[in-house]
Amino acid sequence: MTDGIANDRLEKLQAMRAAGQDPFPARVPRGQPIGELLPDFAQRHGQVVTIAGRLGVVRDFGKLRFAHLSDRTGSLQVGFQRDRLAAFWPNRKQIEGNDLVSITGELGTTQKGEPTLWATDVVLASKALRPAPEKWHGLQDQEQRYRMRYVDLFANPEVRQAFALRSKIVRAVRHYFDSLDYLEVETPILQPIFGGAAARPFVTHHNALDMQLYLRLAPELYLKRLIVGGMERVYEIGRVFRNEGISTRHNPEFTMLESYEAWADYRDIMARVEGLFGHLVEVVLGGQSVVTFREKQYDLKPPFQKARYLDLFAQQNPGVDWFDHASCLARARELGLKTDGIEPHKLANDVFEATVEDTLQGPIFVHDYPVAISPLAKRMSGDPRVTERFELFVCGMELGNAFSELNDPIDQEQRFQDQVAHKDDETPGEVDVDYVQALEFGMPPAGGLGIGIDRLCMLLSGSTSIRDVVLFPLLRRLDPNANAGADAAAPQAPPQP
RNA sequence: GGGGGCGUAGCUCAGCCGGUAGAGCAGCGGCCUUUUAAGCCGUAGGUCGCAGGUUCGAUCCCUGCCGCCCUCACCA
């Protein structure tokens, strides 16, 4: 606020206040969306209309000025002529680029045919004390774009479009499940025991109950309680939180879709996923099923490829037995993976991820995962070492995870106890006895699904980074003292009385 | 956490071999009634991310730190 440009604008604002004008009026003529005027503009010649929005760069010709006015629906040139704006003209410079204005005038064109609103009434709606970024390049600096998304959004129209697409995707997902008679529900984000995924949680505390709480890793265990309760078909689209690293495909908070359907197994859910993608291709992509992602093309039109987890593992690791620790350990060392203190099943899966995931161009369903890495999935009847579970991969990126839900409370309790016995910071320190109790009341066979909505948006929009589909990605806080040197750093603690 | 890159005016970017900074846009003053990246004349604007070091002299070389981007690790 101390730079000269802001002060120029501040002076204009103060001059307006001195003249009795409100630079931030509560209400101005709102008019109509610009986008409504454009399609049949030629027929509207001579019409008097009002539009409101943000002013672009002013092109000044002395007794004539032009500027574009933009709202969420479009952009239209406004012409300010001295002869039509006798009262406004002397103070015309008080309204400048980036100000928010409401303008009434007559529709027409310029000599070169540019659709133009010839202003007869100009009302300042809100004074901008800071200028817009450069008109031609917009805001380019990545960091500034994320830290000041509000500027990024108005300066770079394609950013607004990207988030409009995200909205459309989420709406399409909702529509798909709604049409299948699923109920959209909301379950606790603050959870006393974390579960539903293997990850480190964020920890918080409730004062009145003096209780440690975790921000949820997943809604899974609550949604399945609803299946016990007879809701039979439920889904939730909501934020989950994982205290992990940040990368182009990870944000500490992200949006997850989870759905559960009674009387379905993982084969039915596979069909649901294919149905969902078919719906997204139609509704979001307009039938154009091929998307470009990380410089490669993917056809999202179902049906998708399928491959068994253990088959893929065997292909990439000939002679290695997933279930034999010594065998996996040797392979992991060969691959240069971390092996110290890693549980055998985790290590085996690390070998899978290191050797197989990058080969999964997809879309492909990887199915029948080992039970040891699938603590909530039901075992295959023919082979108790594996579960009825699949994941969906595109471009080596895991998009979704689904399985026939484990509804045997005795098996479930045993697996929870195994987790507790081998507790690390990604597993809870206690059995979720209430969840086991819920299963004891009887849960119908059910199929469940989780899809990372952010990654889905990345794929459908061709975004390389998750930050381009998250409006406000988590960034390190800028510490005003950080750059001031050690001497200027804030004291570690206030002096004790 | 490891590796690589970047940080210069409000914004977009130059800046050579080390000689303490430039352009365009935005701003300010002026000319112009049909421009649309308007044009022309003038003017102002800088802790070169921060702190040290080397040097007669550092935006430039070195070290540390801060932040962002990419990548690997971890994860979805």
> What can be said about the biggest beta sheet?
8 strands, mixed
* Proportion of helical residues: 25-40%
Helix vs. strand class: alpha+beta
What's the end-to-end separation, in Å?
Answer: 37 Å
- Radius of gyration, in Å, reads 29 Å
What is the oligomeric state here?
A: single chain
Strand order of the largest sheet: 7-11-12-19-18-17-16-15
What does this entry look like structurally?
By secondary structure, the protein is of the alpha+beta class. The chain has 13 helices and 19 strands. The strands form 4 sheets. Strands 7-11-12-19-18-17-16-15 form an 8-stranded mixed sheet, sandwiched between helices. Strands 1-3-4-6-5 form a 5-stranded mixed barrel. Strands 8-10-9 form a 3-stranded antiparallel sheet, with no helix packed on it. Helix 5 packs across helix 7, helix 5 (157-179) crosses helix 13 (453-461) and helix 11 packs antiparallel against helix 12 (433-440). Mean pLDDT is 90; it is low at 481-497. The chain binds one RNA strand of 76 nucleotides through helix 1, strand 2, strand 3, strand 4 and helix 3.
What is shown here, in short?
This protein is an alpha+beta fold and 497 residues long.
Key structural traits:
alpha+beta, RNA-binding, elongated, disordered C terminus, 497 residues, 29% helix, eight-stranded mixed sheet, five-stranded mixed beta barrel
